[in-house]
Amino acid sequence: MGKTLAEKILSARSGNNARAGDIVIAQVDLVFVQDTTGPLTVRQFQKSGLKKLAKPERTAVFIDHAVPSPTHTLSNDHLVLRRFAGETGAMLSDVGEGVCHQLVAESLARPGDVIVASDSHTVTAGGLGAFATGMGSSDVAVAMGLGKTWFRVPESIRITVAGKFQKGVSAKDLILHLIGRLGADGATYKALEFGGDSIKEISMSQRFTIANMAVEAGAKAGVFPADELTRDYLSEQGRGTDYQPVFPDADAVYEQTMQIDLNNLEPTVAKPHTVDNVALARELKGTKIQQVFIGTCTNGRLDDLEIAAEILKGKKRYSGTRLIVAPASRQVLMASLEKGYLQTLIAAGATVLPPGCGPCLGLHQGALGDEEACLSTSNRNFKGRMGNPRGFVYLGSPATAAATALAGEITDPREVM
Amino acid sequence: MLRGKAFKFGDGISTDHIIPGRHAHLRSNLPELAKHVLEDADPTFVSRVKEGDFIVAGNNFGLGSSREHAPLVIKMAGVSAILAKSVARIFFRNAINLGLPVLICDTDGINDGDELEVDLSAGIVKDVTSGQKLTFGKIPQVMLRILDEGGLIPYIKKHGDFKL
């Protein structure tokens, strides 16, 4: 009997024949924290009696959520993290470098890795064939000290992809569509495994978008095979030697299989206040939007800024709609400057924030006023998410976001492309 | 035996309802942070909850962020256990890691304000107000071992490694 991607990776890292439902202790190849969960992780680590990091060279501290720091209390949290990195030898990524998940994708995650971190969107690295999952501060503290953690091996839901994305449609529409079908708890305790003939139609950046939101269906991981696209991406990032092929067995056993035909997808939006509350963008025409946000670990990459710039080139945002753009990393920021995307967006009226999480989690920058609505390319729209329980967050693709910024109301991007 | 009053919540209570990102600047000042527990779901909760009380919720309690501060501020409010129809994966693990029991049962018959008694070892919830008795699903063995030590950090402090 063959194995799923999750079973294969957890078998290799636990030294056991890991099958769905088993409890295994697996070696952890990369462990990291960020600045809103890191200080508690440091305190738990200090309380645990564990003296040092198991693998300092594969432990990372990211300062990305509150950057630059808006308050002295968060500045003090940043000090705790810098000191911890200095004392333990962990890698430090400081203000302005970018969102942890984007940097992990660019520089650290490898196919076949087990990755844990104190951030739920750690699942992003599943885009390049890692088993990556979010945990709380206590679990991550122990994983840092022991170099391993325990897992219940998840059942997998196989998502088979066919067809080709049509104009104006991208990975964000696929994953919102899928979450709408699964529901916000439809994959709880399970892994989503993506495959099928058209997997090669989904670029690495788009794979990260899809894997990133697996957790919004409750999934423990969202995993792609590590194929030629993965190999090419790693080579472009100057780490071709990190590549190894990772594929599921042909006779792997799945809890269920679902089909998605890319040809049939349309621009899709999640309405307040749950991610599974989806509708087509065209069905929401007329919904007034006061703020558009393009960025985050979900959709703050170069191709995301490219499509937004393409739509907004030579045009101006609607006067009553603020447009905020935050590249996901310094690499994306530099490349989007070289390509002229940022200049185009600024000319269209965008406010550009430094690489980081920006307004996504309501911590600072771009908090909503009472009864205001935002169309965001981020991954969550829970009540209170963007700094105000009286605000409303809609989630959509960068193309939908750009079209909405032009019109001041939710707009199907195919209308303006 | 745990005893207390039921505070009833619906489906899909996220970690943003429990402790939203706008209070992130208080995360290293836990007593201040805890004053905001569940304020976006029920702003009166924090002033009414007493030591030993229960959160009684519907489906997918605790979905969203990995922030361990969510079960932490619930525990700091005095809540002795969470009863829910289902619970999100990371929240479940985080709560157990902090020594806060999460019990999966059909909560439909429990009303807000009911007096409850929970027998953790027998797996029984008694609704003293209605007289109804419920059983809850077993906590997986590995998590029970962590819970028995009061959480993951005390567990590791004692054993130095996973002895699961």
How would you describe this protein?
The complex is a heterodimer of chains A (417) and B (164). By secondary structure, chain A is an alpha/beta fold. Chain A has two domains: 258 residues, Aconitase, domain 3 (2-Layer Sandwich); 146 residues, 2-Layer Sandwich (Aconitase, domain 3). In chain A, 31% of the residues lie in helices and 19% in strands. Chain A is built from 13 helices and 18 strands. Chain A has a five-stranded parallel beta sheet. Chain A has a five-stranded parallel beta sheet with strand order 16-15-14-17-18. The longest helix of chain A has 17 residues. Chain A is globular and about 55 Å long. Chain B has a seven-stranded mixed beta sheet with strand order 4-3-2-1-5-6-7. Chain B is globular. The model of chain B has no long low-confidence stretch (mean pLDDT 96). Chain B has seven helices and seven strands; from the N terminus they run E-H-H-H-E-H-E-H-E-E-E-E-H-H. Chain B has a single domain, classed as Alpha-Beta Barrel (Aconitase, domain 4), CATH 3.20.19. The chains are: A alpha/beta (417), B alpha/beta (164). At the A-B interface, helix 2, helix 3, helix 5 and strand 7 of A face helix 4, helix 5 and helix 7 of B.
Helices and strands in order:
The complex is a heterodimer of chains A (417) and B (164).
Chain A lengths: L4 H10 L8 E5 L2 E5 L3 H11 L10 E4 L9 H17 L2 E3 L6 H9 L5 E4 L13 E4 L2 H10 L1 E5 L3 E7 L8 H12 L8 E5 L8 H9 L8 E3 L4 H9 L19 E6 L6 E3 L7 E3 L10 E5 H4 L2 H11 L9 E5 L3 H9 L2 H7 L2 E3 L20 E4 L15 E4 L2 H10 L10
Parallel strand pairs in A: 2-3, 2-5, 3-4, 5-6, 8-9, 8-11, 9-10, 14-15, 14-17, 15-16, 17-18
Antiparallel strand pairs in A: 1-7, 12-13
Chain B lengths: L1 E7 L6 H4 L11 H5 L10 H4 L5 E4 L11 H8 L4 E4 L4 H9 L4 E3 L10 E5 L4 E4 L5 E3 L5 H8 L3 H8 L5
Parallel strand pairs in B: 1-2, 2-3, 3-4
Antiparallel strand pairs in B: 1-5, 5-6, 6-7
